Amino acid sequence: MGKKPKYHFNQELLRFERIQKTAFDWLKSFLFHAFTGVSMGLIFFFLYLTFFDTPLTKRLREENEELKVQYKALQKQSEGLREVLDDLQQRDNNLYRAILQAEPIASNVREGDFSGTNRYASFAKMNNSELMASTTQQVDVLTKMVYVQSKSYDELLELVKNKETRLLCLPAIQPVLNQDLTRTASGYGPRIDPIYRVPTFHYGMDFTAPQGTDVYATGEGKVLQAGWRRGYGNCIVIDHGYQYQTLYAHLHTIGVKKGQKVVRGEVIGGVGSTGKSTGPHLHYEVHYRGKPQNPANYYYMDLSPEEYDMMVQIASNFGQTMD
Ligand SMILES: [Zn+2]
């Protein structure tokens, strides 16, 4: 098929002239058509993208859904772990640390505080940011909890290793021979002051005994004080280490010197009635971490459970102390 020739009207010469196309004209025409074609193609391509998923988008969308499901499963799993760790913590604080007399670890220390950090800010821009941030935070908390827990076990292990010497040092017997418990006069708690006749708090335990009766060191330790102390009369204080101290008051005689080492059951003095006292007796105090404790809770080494019950009953009678 031949091409139709193109004509051009020459206004000066008033006649039609046949147009001769140059190579440049041909190129121009080709480029124009090519550009129009590509442009239309692109427009349709973007329209298609807007209204339909390409195979790649479809795959990504599916993967995203799958990840979301996996994240949720992960969150469930870490919630399960959290329960196990909570249980371990309970036992750690209330049982192991209590038995070995270590301070319980506060929950804010165990879990750490991640609320102030912007660790999770990068998630904010993403879809499902809440799910990702909360799961990541949960894992952070778990990590911290596991770390603190293992540190706690390390500490307890050290305490157990020292348990032998610790047991020797604890003030764990009665300070006078009291086999039938008849010497227990008055215990720790609110009592009536024997001299001023007003309610006061009695920070120790009184044992009645004839003057000169042997007084024992109740645990291994070092004599911190041996001499006169206002109100207490002749008085001995023993430091047992592990933050334990015991005090023996109203003594007739003092048999130890300051700085001297003593062992449990060693005679350190004799019962008397020196200081503020209404008759021969031993006033005995146990201090832990600088605070007076009920001595009745510390005689587990020389009392059977029955004797112990009886001792607690006698010691808790609301009577008059001997001071
Ligand atoms: Zn007393």
Structure description:
Strands 3, 6, 8, 9, 10, 12, 14 and 15 form an 8-stranded antiparallel beta sheet that branches. Strands 7-13-11 form a 3-stranded antiparallel beta sheet, with no helix packed on it. The mean pLDDT is 85. It folds into 3 domains: 7-51; 55-161; 184-315, Glucose Permease (Domain IIA), CATH 2.70.70. The chain has helices at residues 23-51, 55-99, 107-111, 129-161, 163-169, 305-315; strands at residues 7-10, 15-18, 184-186, 189-192, 199-202, 205-208, 214-216, 221-229, 233-241, 244-251, 253-254, 261-262, 267-270, 281-288, 291-293. With 323 residues, it is α+β, with helices and mostly antiparallel strands. The longest helix is centred in the first third of the chain and has 45 residues, at 55-99. The protein is rod-shaped. β8 (221-229) and β9 form a beta hairpin. Residues 202, 204, 206, 283, 321-323 line the site of zinc ion.
